[in-house]
Amino acid sequence: MEKGKVRTFFTYVDERYALVRAHPAIKIVSLVVLNVIPWVIEAPVPLASFLTSLLLAAALLKAPLSKLKDYLPYLLLVAQAVALSYVLGSRIPGNAVYIEFPWGCYVTDRTLLYMASVMLRISSMLVGSTLIFLSLRDTDVVYGLTSLGVPFAAAFAFNLALRFSSLFLDDYARVRDAMLLKGVRLDAGSPLERAKLLSRTAVPLMVIAVRRMQDLSFALELKGFPPSGKRTYFYRFRWSRADVAVFALLVAATAAVAVAKVATPIFRFPGWPFV
Amino acid sequence: MIDARKVAVMAVTAGLCLPLALFAIILVPVPGLPAASGFWIPAGFYFVMTLWFGVWGALGGHIATFLAMGYFQGFTLQVWADGALGDLMAPLVALMVFKLMGAHPDLKDRKDKMAWLIGVPIASLVCGLWVHTVNLYFGVITWPFWWVGVLTYFIGDSLAVFIVGTPLLRSLTSYVKQSPMYIWRD
What are the chain A neighbours of B139 within 8 Å (beta carbons)? Predict the structure, then answer.
């Protein structure tokens, strides 16, 4: 591990990234809030402002912004889906009609504006979630969820599911290597043929899974799962004043956006300044 | 109430489905439709796990789908709400069909086979309807493209479940019956 780096769920991040040190419950609440706010907002300008603020905050908090480029292919996939879907299949009235199709759909200035809104909404969710996930350590899931009142057994079950994935990646690689050594070409043929070949890994993987399931249930029972009575924790996360303030701010911001959407047109499409 | 067996079923199902979900997304992406693989291999696994071990198998599939989709598409509300919740519902619908028909997952008699043949398409259709209605609600697609998404999802998901799940149920159910987590008793 490089000096000055912290291990989080998917990668190593700079220890100066301020969110890494935040209370685990704040990370989980932020993940929800940063997705709910762009979901509520429909108007392009407020969405663009939200995305810009997120990027500025990320830069100020020393977030590893370069990691966002991993999701560019997905954003391009969404962009082409949105473009195809709205150009060929929408009827959004506007001030100018650019194209009209024989099946009754048309493209107006407002169609383009709505497409921009959808892209800004998905981008905001993506940027917000990625910044939080980059700061999330495996312990944060259990500690964050229990801090928010989720029973330890449920939080532990979720975390265990996350951790088990890497074990099966190894099993899958072993089964696939055995197939390759027997002469199977997993990269040849049509997509359906490749998918069928890949599905042949099913039986050995399933046998491994059933055995592992029994071993795991015995191990958990021997360790006294589910815990009865009050348990102790290896780490202690205390709520600082800053954590409480951030928590209150997140809840207030979500409520304010929801109320403003209902009470005023600023967050409803087309929103300010197009109203 | 959560106990060690239920946690084991969920954790192992999630762990098993995750690498397969990652490969399914790479293998057959559907152009123009985000969050849809034409051949969703893990569906075959979590359908089978749910039929053998109940609701906790479906929860494992749900976690695996969210993590796999999130890896490529970001861990967003939209990704969770469409693919991951949809993949939680689908195997539960199939389990309900089996329960309602009084069928068993070893596919031995006619009733079992009928439940499988009816349950999988119904479950895939419910999942397809959910996924693309969520996509529509988030504004990613429009109504004229909604049915295209539902149809491709229905075909891809049903195919994957039949191709992967049928041999698993036929060849491994007698082996799995020895497990204390197996939910069906003859």
Answer: 82, 114, 117-118, 121
DSSP letter assigned to residue B169? H
- Alpha carbon A13 to chain centroid, angstroms: 17
- Reported as a single tens digit per residue, the pLDDT across B159-171 is 889 988 998 999 9
ipTM of the complex: 0.82
For chain A, positions 98-127, list CB contacts with chain B under 8 A: 103, 105, 114, 117-118, 121-122, 125-126
State the DSSP code for A102.
Answer: T
Query: Can you tell me the distance from the alpha carbon of B22 to that of B30, in angstroms, rounded to the nearest whole number?
Result: 14
Please tell me what DSSP assigns to residue A149: T
Q: Which of residues 223-242 of A touch B (CB under 8 A)?
A: 225-226
User: What is chain B's Cα-based Rg?
Assistant: 16
CB atoms within 10 A of CB B155: 15
| Residues in Cβ contact with A58 at an 8 Å cutoff, skipping those fewer than 6 apart | A65, A127, A131
Q: Measure Cα distances from B81 to A10, A129, A150, B42, B127 in Å.
A: 22, 14, 20, 18, 11
Amino acid A275: pLDDT: 64
What is the C-alpha separation between B44 and A231, in angstroms, rounded?
38
Residue B89, pLDDT above cutoff 90: yes
In the block, tokens 């890494």 appear at: A20
Contact A165 B64 (CB under 8 A): yes
> ∠A150-A157-A236 over CA atoms, to 5°?
55
Can you list the domains of chain B with their CATH numbers? 4-28+41-176 (1.10.1760)
pTM of the model: 0.80
Structure tokens at B5: 């067996």
Beta strands in chain A (DSSP E): 5-7, 12-14, 97-100, 106-108
Tokens at A262, concatenated: 């209902």
